[in-house]
Design goal:
GO terms for molecular function: 8-oxo-7,8-dihydrodeoxyguanosine triphosphate pyrophosphatase activity; bis(5'-nucleosyl)-tetraphosphatase (asymmetrical) activity. InterPro entries: His_Pase_superF_clade-1, His_PPase_superfam, Nudix_hydrolase, NUDIX_hydrolase-like_dom_sf, NUDIX_hydrolase_CS, NUDIX_hydrolase_dom, Nudix_hydrolase_domain. It is an enzyme of class 3 (hydrolase). The protein is of the alpha/beta class. The protein has 2 domains: about 150 residues, Alpha-Beta Complex (Nucleoside Triphosphate Pyrophosphohydrolase); about 160 residues, Rossmann fold. The chain has 11 helices and 15 strands. Strands 1, 4, 5, 6, 7, 8 and 9 form a 7-stranded mixed sheet that branches. Strands 12-11-13-10-14-15 form a 6-stranded mixed sheet, with helices on both faces. Strands 2-3 form a two-stranded antiparallel ribbon.
């Protein structure tokens, strides 16, 4: 029986101002385009600002002598998202956060192994690009930023080209610029006791504390900018390690608690979810198993998304499990673009 190799990677992208692209020889001329019949800005023509150039990062691998995307094997104990971020940094020097999941490719390695690689889109911001630590090495001899329209022809493998077609379809609909809301169920909690007689006072168990620590790199892979939590102790303790890792404060909110949910009036919960979506920044929301389905429904309502059975699956999480909901920043009416579920068995 053939062995299975799991790997993860990214399709890194950035938008370069048209003037810069023209200077580098990768884009169209930097002069503005004109449309006849417009205002008299230039001899009776309306000036149309140049469109930014969408660029994609390709790597030239040293040993294989091929052109591909950043990727690598999943280490023992790693999650796929964690591996994708780590491998991208190791091969390119870029510290990225994951956007939309682009799917998986499968191929055989020799006669005894089958390799499965999962990919995400990953935006490279100007600050991220400036902080790159890349130098040519034994694995990657060169990095090349290529206009997206030309990248497909440069890729060495059919599987990579087919994956890139998914990326191009998203780009054609202006759906690359995304943000995510991660719904997280608290880690394993202790039962009620004389020290914590009320439900909201229950702390995490030793196992729960370990789960909260293990979650950190996987949650961090999606680049959370804000962390929201139920006021229950078990939720606050679950997000404490990721908050410390990111140097972020936890925004505790009663509207995310099970006690509030038990009371039946979810108007404040709806308001909070609406604000999170309107802000358009990556966020973690930690709550309780009974509350998660309503939080997912509020995400649907706040974005005009189509409901379905996928919501039940995405919220039926074990302690310490989470689901990542992706949305478009530029086209909010597009609704939920994708959901990733991580029902970790810690």
């Amino acid at each position: 029986m053939s062995r299975e190799i799991l790997a993860a990677g990214t399709v890194c992208w950035r938008r370069v101002p048209a003037e810069a692209a023209a200077r580098s020889g990768t884009g169209t001329p930097a002069s503005a385009t004109t449309v006849a019949g417009g205002s008299a800005a230039t001899a009776g023509a309306a000036v149309v600002p140049p469109v930014d150039q969408l660029m994609v990062l390709l790597i030239h691998r040293t040993k294989q002598g091929d052109v591909s995307f950043p990727k690598g094997k999943v280490d023992p104990g790693e999650s796929m998202p964690q591996a994708a971020v780590r491998e991208t940094h190791e091969e390119t020097g870029l510290q990225v956060s994951l956007g939309l999941n682009l799917g998986t490719i499968n191929y055989t390695v020799g006669d005894t192994a089958r390799k499965t690689v999962q990919y995400w889109a990953a935006e490279v911001t100007p600050a991220c690009a400036l902080a790159s630590t890349f130098t040519p090495n034994r694995e990657v001899q060169a990095l090349e930023w290529v206009p997206a329209s030309r990248a497909r022809a440069r890729l060495s493998y059919k599987a990579d080209r087919e994956l890139f077609d998914v990326f191009l379809r998203l780009a054609s609909h202006d759906l690359l610029d995304t943000f995510s809301v991660t719904l997280l169920r608290h880690a394993k909690a202790a039962p009620r006791s004389p020290l914590s007689p009320e439900d909201h006072q229950r702390p995490l168990t030793t196992v729960g504390d370990e789960q909260a620590e293990v979650l950190v790199p996987s949650l961090a892979a999606f680049g959370p900018r804000r962390i929201y939590s139920s006021t229950a102790v078990r939720c606050l303790e679950t997000v404490a390690p990721i908050a410390e890792h990111l140097d972020k404060r936890v925004r505790a909110n009663e509207a995310l608690s099970q006690d509030f949910w038990d009371a039946g009036d979810l108007s404040l919960t709806r308001s909070l979810v609406g604000k999170i979506v309107k802000r358009g920044k990556n966020a973690i929301v930690c709550s309780h198993r009974p509350v998660l389905p309503d939080l997912a429904r509020e995400l649907v309502l706040a974005t005009g998304s189509v409901p379905g059975d996928y919501l039940a699956e995405a919220t039926a999480l074990p302690p310490g499990g989470f689901s990542v909901f992706h949305f478009s920043r530029t086209r909010p009416g597009a609704g939920i673009l994708g959901v990733e579920m991580y029902p970790f068995k810690h």
